[in-house]
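Issue 218. Parser rejects a valid record. Input:
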Amino acid sequence: MRRIQKRMQAVSLVSFNDYIDYLEVHPEEFALLFNTILINVTGFFRDQQAWEYLAREVLPHILANKTDGQHVRIWSAGCASGEEAYSLAILLAEALGAEQFQQRVKIYATDVDEDALAYARLASYSAKDLESVVPSLREKYFELIGNRYVFRSEPRRAVIFGRHDLIQDAPISRLDLLVCRNSLMYFNAETQGRVLSRFHFALSDNGFLFLGKAEMLLTRANLFTPVNLKFRIFSKVPQVTLRNQLPLLVTPGNGESATAFSRYVRLREAAFDTAPVAQIVVDLSGTLVLANGPARALFSVTARDIGRPFRDLDLSYRVIELRAPIEEVAASRRPVTFRGVEWHFSPSEVRFLDIQIVPLIHNGGNLGGVGLSFVEVTRYHRLQEELRRSHQELETAYEELQSANEELETTNEELQSTVEELETTNEELQSTNEEMETMNEELQSTNEEMQTANEELRQRTDELNRTNGFLASILTSLHVGAVVLDRNLSVQIWSHRAEDLWGLRAGEVIGQFFLNLEMGLPVEQLKGPIRTVVNGEAESQDVMIQAVNRRGKTIQCRVTCAPLLGANKEIHGGVLLMEEWGDTRLHKDGTGEE
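Output the parser choked on:
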């Protein structure tokens, strides 16, 4: 919330609705908002004691389990600007030696922030960034180019950077070490559980997981066991299920194993048929192949319906239209969920269902069909409605109570404040560790930004005040029409005298292409002189043009074209000074003679 509000302040908005409207009008704001939320605060060997333990205890154990020539695979998830990945490369290179490191080690560094990945691929850091790297390692693995330290190219080849979404993308597999520090704390408990399950799949049986100091495995403690809880290093708990063991038990000619497998199949069928949730299965040809007992009872599916095209059954559209979502899941291989679907079971009864459509993948990775689950949540919706009514009644009672307690309001202010603080504290204590870590990273980032921004803001404010006053004084004192163009000949400044001459307000022409303006001045005759001064071919050009002013009067207009010069004599555009030749206001003697 703080990061979003920071971005809202940057665009001078207070209301969330206004910011949503701003995002719809300015799509480029999404990238800025995304980069503001992702706080890319990292460093080399961050939390140095944890890295020392990793180098002293974990990496030797990983290498001891490898035979000569076997590869070592490491994943740095949420690598930000790359310091963590290069820290891993330094430790592995020190442990294996340069030659073995280049031949055997692959370090995959991923993040969702493309800008951070682009910075990480450059492998270029300042001296301040390398303060935590001991001088001997700095000289060995970094090359000083100018005032930047660049990671040497030989060990750099072992580090592969790429974009990866921990929630949606498939994990990298067969890993010996997975480093994900201070990334899980941005997710809620449910999402953390999903990501940790993927981490468990990605690690080999002897693999290790290295987390940040603000993260704990509270949701998936059965998947990992602590190696060092202080430094948040865990080892994978291998899980072997009956499903994984059966292919090993069944061998040709082994009747006993075949009987066990047959018993297992019957057990699975019985479990599917008696499951408390209504489930059906549709194969890739769109045929209904399975429907368990609850599904048959709920949707009146008979044995004759099994084997029929699903589109011919009223089940395909009875609750909602299911054919298009089934095709979508089969094509994308990603589950689709519909929650709280209203189903008019009968004219007098309404039920609510949660419908989940999932792809059925074989062990070989082939799609076998699509499974649909129907969970009835009618009771939950009714409870929600009752809860809503209870809230309304509670609000009414609270208003009456508040009216009765107006005389005691002054006495109870301190007590009410204390109660509110205790309620807030009770809620915030659940996420204090993660919140504090986030705030520390924000402060590191914000302090650096504020030190630079405050100084720049003070200087620019002074310069802007002086420049604005100076420019306003000049434009007010000029009795000629002044127009400032950029190099693309778009209007940047349109003075009051120019408005008076041609009848066009500044708001109408600012940002417009000058040669496309429709006014009494034939701008096509100025195309050549303007191009000449903008291209630096002449210091100025004077042109006398017959024109029609805003009053419809034909006048002789003298136009002076001059280049718009920057601080380094660079040409940033052009300046046009337009005066009605013979205008008596231009002469000091007031005679009106030219």
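Fixed in the parser; the record now loads. The longest helix spans residues 432-477.
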